[in-house]
Design goal:
By secondary structure, the protein is of the alpha/beta class. The protein folds into two domains: 250 residues, Aldolase class I (TIM Barrel), CATH 3.20.20.70; 56 residues, no CATH class. It is 38% helix and 22% strand. It has 15 helices and 17 strands. The strands form four sheets. A nine-stranded mixed β-sheet has the order 9-10-8-7-6-5-4-1-11, with helices on both faces. A hairpin with a 2-residue loop joins β12 and β13. The longest helix has 19 residues. The protein is globular.
């Protein structure tokens, strides 16, 4: 790894923060910054994220300089703002040196001063090597960590292509709880051969770790992944619809009993411990996307724009060094497009969406479709607030399709 200059002292950030109002206007529902680190030690067979394996470590000093330039460019587009959240995603951000994280945070704070209660999250793998860096990330300004545990079964971890064991993962969770007040971790369920009883026991073991937030995802087959090829060849058998529903029901029951009910279709938290950065997405706020393959939603000169950067890391780096940014797509969103995005994102939340705000964006929802879904028990309406019910969440895609149709 290349030598990295010492980073400036980061701003002091508290560990907890208040909720963002779900009723906020389009450009005031929160502003956050997403930073993508595109490198991984190995590519998991289920993953279709923009992640890349390289034999030689990336030149972090060179990437720091590029991040600084792209941050400055995005600041020129967005105008003055305060950042309520920062999220380091990937890839595997915990492969970065803590000094790299500190330098990027300093650049963000210069461009969009962080609020005094800003949430700063870093995704991390729970290997022993990466866990050793947690104290350094905390000192750099990170106050929340999200761990990719994925399973608490060693055989299944191996099948998922993970590089850690259960013992290593639980040790990393313990280290994280000492380094950060706010800790979340991910688990994947509906795995091959998994029964509701197995999943209930595994989930209870996870909840016993005392974390404030869990992201629980059903295993899905993504196009272009090794799992897609195995599934197509009949070598990977996933639960059928009835078993998947039983696993879903277990997820809701066990987490609710433990005090971490679902606040979003795949995310569970103690009240007040929701992921504030992700709430900006789901409540249709604005955010800058920095790094290879990042996307953002910025209001530029009064127009909401969808921005995407170059996905290939080396090409991203070259574009930023040549032009100051690596934006490859910049699209002005029409009012109906914004309304559709708001509906798509907001209905994932237990709190639902504000139909009055949806209408202000130019959206229109067929009252007959709402009535039919209410009658079926899939949605509930209270004034201008429309939300998906517990019965509707397992068929969320169909509910959204009917509402948006």
């Amino acid at each position: 790894m290349s030598m990295i200059a010492a980073a400036p002292t980061p701003p002091v950030l508290p560990d907890a923060a208040p909720q963002i109002s779900p009723h906020a206007a389009p450009d005031s529902a929160g502003f956050g910054v997403y930073v993508h680190w595109p490198f991984c030690k190995a590519k998991c067979p289920y993953c279709d994220f923009n992640s890349h394996v390289r034999h030689a470590p990336p030149d972090e000093a060179r990437f720091i300089a590029a991040f600084r330039r792209e941050i400055a460019h995005m600041r020129d587009l967005s105008g003055p703002k305060q950042a309520q959240t920062v999220f380091f995603g990937g890839g595997t951000p915990s492969l970065m040196a803590p000094a790299t994280v500190a330098a990027i945070l300093e650049a963000i704070n210069t461009a969009w001063p962080l609020t005094s209660d800003a949430e700063v999250t870093l995704e991390a793998n729970p290997t022993s090597v990466e866990a050793e860096r947690f104290a350094g990330y905390g000192a750099a300004g990170v106050n929340r960590v999200s761990l990719g545990v994925q399973a608490l079964d060693d055989k299944d971890l191996q099948g998922l292509g993970r590089m850690h064991s259960v013992a290593e993962a639980l040790a990393a969770v313990a280290i994280a709880r000492r380094a950060f007040k706010r800790v979340s971790f991910d688990l994947i369920y509906a795995r091959p051969r998994q029964t509701p009883e197995d999943w209930a026991a595994e989930l209870k073991r996870a909840l016993a770790e005392g974390c404030e937030h869990l992201s629980l995802y059903q295993l899905t087959i993504e196009p272009g992944t090794p799992f897609e090829r195995l599934y197509g060849a009949g070598k990977l058998i996933l639960p059928d619809d009835d078993l998947s529903r039983a696993l879903w029901d277990v997820t809701q029951e066990v987490t609710a009993e433990a005090g971490l009910p679902a606040y979003e279709v795949s995310n569970h938290a103690r009240p007040g411990a929701e992921a504030r950065h992700n709430l900006i997405y789901w409540r249709y706020g604005t955010y800058a996307g920095i790094g290879a393959g990042a996307h953002g939603r910025l209001v530029v000169d009064g127009t909401r724009r969808a921005l995407f950067t170059e996905r290939a890391p080396e090409e991203w780096l070259a574009r930023v060094e040549a032009a100051g940014h690596a934006i490859v797509s910049d699209e002005a969103l029409s009012a109906p497009e914004q309304a559709d995005e708001m509906l798509l994102m907001g209905l994932r939340l237990k709190e639902g969406v504000d139909l009055a705000r949806h209408a202000r964006l130019g959206g229109r929802v067929d009252e007959a479709h709402i009535a039919a879904l209410v009658a079926a028990g899939f949605v509930a309406r209270s004034g201008d607030r429309l939300r998906v019910t517990p019965a509707g969440f397992p068929v969320l895609n169909a509910v959204i399709a009917q509402l948006a149709g």
